[in-house]
Design a protein that fits this description.
The chain has about 280 residues and is mainly α. It folds into 3 domains: about 70 residues, no CATH class; about 60 residues, no CATH class; about 90 residues, no CATH class. The chain has 10 helices and 4 strands. The strands form 2 sheets. Strands 1-2 form a two-stranded antiparallel ribbon. Strands 3-4 form a two-stranded antiparallel sheet. Helix 4 crosses helix 5, helix 5 crosses helix 8 and helix 6 runs antiparallel to helix 10.
């Protein structure tokens, strides 16, 4: 869950933090321990001496002659399609933003949108990698964020590093999803199940640990190429379809099996692990 923590400083300035945590108590504890000396968690959790629930939002209503402390209701307009049965992970969000980029195109983005496109490392499908790099370098220089091509390149590399860690986090979650193993076990018997994972072992590790997916999802050959027997790769005639596994659910071929596991590994359609 995401926990928003607001600390009111002197002169009513505020510090706002958004933390990813298993529960509110953990988030508040981590927040308080970031200070020296540590803050009191009791100032952020539970009910205070004035019987105000600190885990609700409160603010002063100055429209009244005598200001009154009122509960604040937050309403969130979330444009990202949300699937309560899916993972809703970073790569799903990134795919959503890429669909917006492809529709709107780089030329029609605001400067803030261009900055965000650089931050999450997405490229418009209709242009080449070279044109994409030129667009981003030009943007960084013209907006004053860089003075030279090399400075712009370093900014892009730094952003790519942050993106890559989030990409790995998403791929790792998909690689160890219980749903993935359930799907494989639904279609394959124990012998073929073992053979499948032994065959893709190195490609699987590259996906899980380095977010290497395949030529249709990046520049490197990866596990997706094996699963989909991607045309033009070494797996075109030596991929999963060449195995000829017998489907345990009675399907005549492996089409649905391939779609099912790619729904998880490429599209993130799985239920994430919960503590």
């Amino acid at each position: 869950m995401i926990v928003a923590i607001i600390k009111i400083e002197s002169e009513l300035s505020s510090v706002e933090e958004y933390r990813n945590a298993v529960d509110e108590s953990t988030a508040v504890s981590d927040f308080c321990n970031d200070y020296t000396p540590p803050l009191n968690t009791e100032d952020y959790l539970g009910v205070n001496a004035s019987s105000i629930d600190l885990q609700e939002s409160w603010g002063w209503d100055f429209s009244k002659a005598t200001p009154v402390l009122e509960r604040i209701a937050f309403i969130l307009n979330l444009p990202l399609p949300f699937d309560s049965t899916g993972s809703n992970d970073y790569n799903q969000f990134r795919d959503y933003r890429k669909s917006i980029l492809n529709t709107k195109t780089w030329a029609n983005l605001s400067n803030d949108e261009r900055d965000f496109t650089i931050q999450i490392n997405i490229k418009e499908d209709a242009i080449t990698e070279s044109q994409d790099a030129t667009n981003k370098i030009t943007h960084l220089i013209t907006t004053g964020q860089a003075t030279t091509t090399e400075e712009a390149r370093i900014i892009m590399v730094d952003n790519w590093g942050d993106h890559h860690l989030l990409d790995i986090e998403s791929c790792r979650a998909r690689a160890i999803a219980v749903d993935l193993y359930v799907k494989v076990g639904t279609y394959l018997n124990r012998v073929d199940y073992t053979d499948f994972f032994l065959t893709v072992e190195n490609l699987y590790f590259a996906f899980r640990d380095q977010a290497i997916k395949g030529t249709n999802d990046g520049s490197e050959t990866g596990v997706f190429d094996y699963i989909e027997s991607t045309v033009g790769t070494v797996y075109e005639f030596a991929g999963l379809s060449s195995k000829g596994y017998t489907m345990q659910n009675g399907d005549p071929d492996m089409t649905n099996f391939i779609v099912s596991i790619m729904d998880i590994m490429r599209h993130g359609k799985y239920k994430p692990l919960t503590n």
